[in-house]
């Protein structure tokens, strides 16, 4: 999950989140149109999945959550890293 400078959250899947963030930020070719001009972008949450199918299912569920639930997920993941 990526956060824009305005606080919007963008969710997607990738095999290489760091590379994908660089694409979205404009450092590399191939970023999402929805994120153009919305930087700086920050990778705020990521979750490893066993395969692309499971990643797509998780992405679908995550996109349906309200922003408050997404922020809570992000904050609980951040708290567990401390």
Account of the protein in words:
This protein has 82 residues and is mainly alpha-helical. It has one domain. Helix content is 45%, strand content 7%. A three-stranded antiparallel beta sheet has the order 2-1-3, covered by helices on one side. It is globular. The chain starts with a strand and ends with a helix. The mean pLDDT is 90.
Number of domains: 1
Could you tell me the mean pLDDT? 90
Categorize the overall geometry.
globular
What proportion of the residues is helical, as a percent range? Answer: 40-55%
Strand content: 5-15%
| Largest sheet, strands/sense/barrel | 3 strands, antiparallel
Query: Strand pairing plus helix content: what structural class?
Result: mainly alpha
Radius of gyration: 13 Å
What multimeric state do the chains show? single chain
Calculate the terminal CA-CA distance, rounded to whole Å. Answer: 19 Å
Number of strands: 3
Q: Point out poorly predicted stretches.
A: none
Strand order of the largest sheet: 2-1-3
Q: Tally the helices: what do you get? A: 3
H/E topology pattern: EEHEHH
């Amino acid at each position: 999950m990526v956060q824009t400078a305005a606080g919007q959250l963008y969710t997607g899947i990738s095999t290489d989140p760091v590379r994908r963030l660089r694409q979205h930020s404009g450092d590399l070719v191939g970023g999402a149109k929805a994120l153009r001009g919305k930087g700086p972008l920050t990778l705020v949450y990521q979750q490893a999945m066993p395969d692309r199918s499971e990643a797509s299912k998780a992405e679908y569920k995550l996109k349906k959550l309200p922003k408050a639930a997404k922020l809570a997920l992000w904050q609980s993941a951040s708290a567990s890293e401390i």
